[in-house]
Structure formats: structure tokens, C-alpha cells
Design goal:
The chain is mostly beta strands. It is 9% helix and 41% strand. The protein starts with a strand and ends with a strand.
Length: 606
């Protein structure tokens, strides 16, 4: 729920933002204020999460602190469990909430107006129904003076967020769906507190190092999980997928390993001391950290055979950590020298030129992540040491310029992750006494108001899927009658033995008796007198020698009642007998958006 501050005489947006160390633009976005951003006494403002701690100084009292921050003394006392006469000790750390957990309805307010003003939106549309549901209102009508909880609605953002949590009693990999607000468990007892989910570029696989340091791969289309290797204690746990999503690079036993998750075999490169392996976009070269001949940490590139090795950096200082190549392969970043002091640097791959990211005030800059377009880095910068530590969510360009603070987490540090379109950043917060995060948040850089996605469960890592996938898991369809097996979106429901439907599509199967010419069969199906595929359907033949098949795509004038139906026709390996009749072709109908996705998974039963 959002917290609300009541504007008092002398307040300005800048002064209010400064009290909780907030970016002013975040405060503006949280309330959808318009230029010239005028506020009035008595106005209620939603206050995003900020630095809500204050260290007591000599001469302080609850009343004086209340006046400084503009919040009721009773609220400060209640939040910190203080009892009259509210005696404070110098150096005591108090939590100062920016306001109360409800909004008081004003004359002229409606649920729609409140939802619009305070960003209760889903997929860009206001969601007054969610406001009504959370407040358990019998109707949409509200009266002045009503106290309303203003929630954070499911955002409707694309993709899925994979995260590690013990919300089920043990550490596992979960996924959060921003469109629905639903959480789904992917593993069962395989994770650990150090597990970090790593999506493949096509979002079809997730790799992680789990319990007993075993590397697992989750095949998202089927839900199957494979353990592929076991790492030693204390080694580099970083994983990186190849650009084509087929192979996973990691370091084990003094070697760089490239594991092909389709063929289930690995290639090895002997490289002592290597860590943080990244793939170049070509898929034929690797970037990694390793010691030079003098034992000093450097960045190198080589081909996937381990030859043509070339040193990129000329480092003379401490070890290079957290190395990762930009998606376009032109820059890399690393942190150095360690954990207590961590400075981010970027290096130009072509020239070796190094740029320092100045970062936060304490020299504690963690979890750098490249934006999808390779132009920016998001990272966590620890700050406000005197108030118990908070993390600033920052971005900077790849040459260390245009550093900007977007949001505040109350954790010492937090992982950050970009949305598939590069418009948003997700991060963790909700730390208590520097323990694990218990909340997941997201901020839209175009409208920078933090929105809470998850609360009340321990979360240790998070990564957004690289693509805007709509369905994470697929189900398998098997028909003994038609002798076929394939995958389809998990949300679709059975209509009958041959047809399944969902909100976004459908499939139906049958068999055909036809001539020995696949071209003739495809033409006859596409150009029926009733024109089910329109007047000018497109026939696409499969271009290989071991499969005789075609795909029929409808033209723009296809009848609307056909619901975008397309077709895939393929020849059976041997004729299929169904109810005493021998059929030599299998046909799949599906909406044109799913026809290729489904047809590429077809397998005939033995």
C-alpha cells in the first residue's frame, strides 16, 4: 500500500523530496503532477520509498523530529514502539514513515480519479476495479472522508521475472508474471541462498547453480530440469548463455566449459584462473577474466577453441570481478578491488580504453547490469551509512557519464535487472536489520514511480526474461489416434480430443488422404472454393530433404470467423491407420501467430 503525506505551510516538492532523499521526479510521477507542479496546504501526496531513518541528535525530541519531517508525533511513536514520555537516546536510530497508510477521499473523488492520480494501473490503463477489490467496497461509489488503501496493481509489463526465494520453505527458483501478479514455482528443493537464475536469450531456458553447487538447466517449454555439472567450493558461480541460447559457458576445474544444452555435451578450454566468461554476439568468441604472466588480473578474448587469445586490459591494480560483456560486444564492465570498496569500470573492447564510474558516495557499487541496447548500466550504490545503509538504484552511460539516481532501496545493496525493452528496472527492497530483501519493486524510467510487485517473502536474486514471452510453460499434446506429439501454450484448454483453445489462439488436428505430391495437397487445401484462407493465401514449403511439409498462411481478406486460422501439412513417415482408413498426411490448424511455434515441436509416435 502507498503512504500519504499531508502538505503543510512552507512545503515544496524539493523540500519534501529532500527529507526522504527522493528524486524529485519520482515524487512528481507518484502523484501525476503537471507543470508548474504546484502543491497546496492540506493536499495528500503519495510518497515513494526513501531514506526513512533518522539518527537522534543532542536536543532532539519526538515532537521536534515530528516538526522537522512534517508527520504526526503519534505516528513516529507508534512506528518505533515508543512509550510516554518518549525518552530518546543520542545516536538512537528511528524510523520516520513519510505518512499514513491510507488516502482520505475528497469531494469530487471517484475510484477512477484516485487510480489515475496514484498510478493504480495495469498495462497502461487505470484499474479502479483493483482499488475497489482491495478496499472490499460493495460498489464503485465513495464518500468524502472515507479512508482508502491505495495498492500497487499488477503492472501488465512484458516478460517474466525469475527470482530465488524460500517462500515455499526452501530456496527455489520462482517466476513472477507482471501481467497477472501471479507467482509460479519452477523447482522443488533444488535452489540455495546463492542461486541466481540466468535466462537464455530466447527466454526458453533458465540456468542456475543450486544445492550442493550443482548447475541446473530449467527447460521452460516443458518444465523439465537437468543437472549438468557440479562446481567446487569457492569457485566462480557465473553462467552465461550463447547468443543462440544453445550453450552455457562457465568455469570448473581450471577449465572453461561450453555445455550444449540441446546435444548434452560439453567442449572444454584449458584456462587456469579464469572466471566470468561471456559470449561475444558472434557466438564464436569469449570474454573472460584470467591472470596474466605476472599473475595480475586481466580481461582476455579468445575463440571458442581457446586459441587466438588476446589481452584487452593493462590492469596494474587489484583483481577484476563481476566482468560482463555488453550485448553488442563493444564494451565490458568489471568491479574492483573487492567487496568493502567496489568501483565499476567500463572498458572499450576495440581499444582497451578504461572509464571509471564515480558511483555512490561510499565507494560501494554493486550488481552492474547492461541495458539491452548496451548504452547504459544499471547498478546499486550503497549510501547513507549514518542512517543504517540504503541503496540507490542508479544508471550511468557506458563511458561513466550521465549518472542518475532513480529510486531508493532500504537494503545495503540489491541486484538490478532490465525489462526486455530496456524501459524499466526491477530491484529488491524490504530489508530488516540488513537481512534478506522481502520485496520486489520496479520503476519505469519514463514515468519514475516505484511500484511494488512482491512483498512478505525472502528474495535473494532476480532476473527479467530477455524477451517479452507471454507464456512461460508449454504443455504436451499426445494423440495415439493421430500418432503425433507436440507442445502448445499451457493456458489453452481442451475443447475435444482434437481441438484446444485459449484467449490468444487455438489448434486443431486431423489427417488427410492425398496424392503423392505434397505440393498438390497443400494447393488443394489452401485454395478451397469456400476460401477459408482468403483469396490469396501464402504457401511456404519446408526447405529440407528429410521432411515433406508446408505452411499455409491466410491473406488479409480471410473471413473474420476463421480467427486467423493457418495450417501446417506434413507427410506421415508411414501411413497412419485411423478407424480402418489409411492416411498419408497429418494436418494441424492453428491461429497464424502460433502455427510455427507449435508445428516446429511436432514429433510422430513410433
Amino acid at each position: 500500500m502507498q503512504l500519504f503525506y499531508v502538505v503543510r505551510p512552507g512545503d515544496t516538492l524539493i523540500r519534501i523530496a529532500k527529507r526522504w532523499e527522493l528524486p524529485v521526479k519520482s515524487l512528481i510521477a507518484a502523484n501525476n503532477l503537471t507543470s508548474p507542479y504546484t502543491i497546496s496546504v492540506g493536499q495528500q501526496l503519495s510518497i515513494p520509498p526513501g531514506v526513512n531513518k533518522y539518527r537522534v541528535k543532542s536536543g532532539d525530541s519526538v515532537d521536534r523530529i515530528s516538526q522537522t519531517f512534517g508527520v504526526p508525533a503519534s505516528l513516529i511513536a507508534e512506528t518505533n514502539r515508543l512509550s510516554p514520555p518518549y525518552v530518546l537516546a543520542v545516536g538512537q536510530l528511528l524510523q520516520i514513515p513519510p505518512g499514513v497508510s491510507y488516502y482520505v477521499a475528497q469531494p469530487g473523488d471517484t475510484l477512477s480519479k484516485i487510480a489515475n492520480r496514484f498510478n493504480v494501473t495495469t498495462d497502461g490503463q487505470i484499474n479502479p476495479g483493483y482499488l475497489q477489490k482491495v478496499n472490499e467496497l460493495p460498489s464503485t461509489g465513495i464518500n468524502p472522508g472515507m479512508k482508502l488503501v491505495v495498492p500497487y496493481a499488477p503492472t501488465g509489463y512484458p516478460g517474466f521475472l525469475a527470482y530465488t526465494s524460500n517462500r515455499g520453505g526452501q530456496y527455489d527458483i520462482w517466476v513472477y508474471n507482471p501481467r497477472t501478479g501471479e507467482n509460479k514455482l519452477l523447482t522443488n528443493g533444488l535452489g540455495d541462498v546463492f542461486s541466481k537464475p540466468v535466462w537464455s536469450p530466447d527466454s526458453n531456458r533458465i540456468a542456475f547453480v543450486g544445492k550442493d553447487r550443482i548447475i541446473y538447466i530449467i527447460y521452460a517449454e516443458t518444465g523439465l530440469i537437468a543437472g549438468i555439472d557440479q562446481l567446487e567450493v569457492g569457485v566462480d558461480f557465473s553462467l552465461d548463455w550463447s547468443p543462440d541460447s544453445s550453450s552455457l559457458a562457465y568455469v570448473a576445474r581450471g577449465m572453461i566449459l561450453l555445455y550444449n544444452a540441446t546435444l548434452h555435451e560439453a567442449e572444454t578450454i584449458m584456462q587456469s584462473g579464469a572466471s566470468d566468461v561471456s559470449w561475444f554476439p558472434s557466438g564464436t568468441e569469449l570474454l573472460f577474466q584470467a591472470p596474466d604472466s605476472s599473475g595480475i588480473s586481466q580481461l582476455f578474448r579468445s575463440n571458442t577453441y581457446g586459441t587466438a587469445k588476446k589481452q584487452i586490459t593493462r590492469n596494474t591494480n587489484g583483481p577484476l570481478h563481476d566482468t560482463h560483456l555488453s550485448p553488442d560486444g563493444t564494451f565490458a564492465f568489471y568491479t574492483t578491488p573487492g567487496a568493502s570498496v567496489s568501483i565499476i569500470y567500463t572498458v572499450e573492447i576495440a581499444t582497451g580504453a578504461v572509464h571509471e564510474v564515480k558511483g555512490g558516495p561510499n565507494g560501494k557499487n554493486y550488481f552492474p547490469e547492461w541495458s539491452p541496447d548496451s548504452l547504459r548500466i544499471a547498478y546499486s550504490a550503497t549510501a547513507f551509512e549514518d542512517r543504517g545503509y540504503f541503496a540507490q538504484i542508479r544508471t550511468v552511460d557506458r563511458q561513466g557519464s550521465e549518472d542518475r539516481i532513480w529510486a531508493i532501496s532500504n537494503c545495503f545493496s540489491t541486484p538490478v535487472t532490465w525489462s526486455p525493452d530496456g524501459r524499466r528496472i526491477a530491484y529488491l527492497s524490504g530489508c530488516k536489520e540488513q537481512e534478506f530483501a522481502t520485496e520486489m519493486w520496479v520503476i519505469d524510467l519514463g514515468h519514475p514511480v516505484p511500484i511494488r510487485l512482491i512483498e512478505g517473502v525472502n528474495i535473494v536474486s532476480v532476473q527479467w526474461s530477455p524477451t517479452s514471452i507471454l507464456d512461460l510453460l508449454k504443455k504436451e499434446f499426445t494423440s495415439e489416434k493421430f500418432g503425433v506429439n507436440f507442445q502448445y501454450p499451457a493456458s489453452w484448454q481442451r475443447v475435444n480430443d482434437e481441438r484446444y483453445e485459449g484467449d490468444d489462439g487455438f489448434f486443431q488436428i486431423s489427417a488427410l488422404v492425398g496424392s503423392n505430391s505434397i505440393d498438390r495437397v497443400c494447393h488443394d487445401v489452401a485454395y478451397q472454393k469456400s476460401m477459408p484462407y482468403g483469396s490469396a493465401p501464402q504457401i511456404i514449403k519446408t526447405q529440407n530433404s528429410y521432411e515433406q511439409s508446408c505452411t499455409i498462411l491466410p491473406s488479409a481478406d480471410q473471413p473474420i470467423e476463421m480467427k486467423g486460422q493457418a495450417a501446417f501439412i506434413t507427410e506421415y513417415p508411414s501411413p497412419q491407420t485411423i478407424d480402418g482408413v489409411s492416411y498419408n498426411y497429418f494436418i494441424l490448424w492453428a491461429d497464424k501467430e502460433h502455427i510455427n511455434e507449435i508445428s516446429t515441436t511436432i514429433m510422430f509416435l513410433p
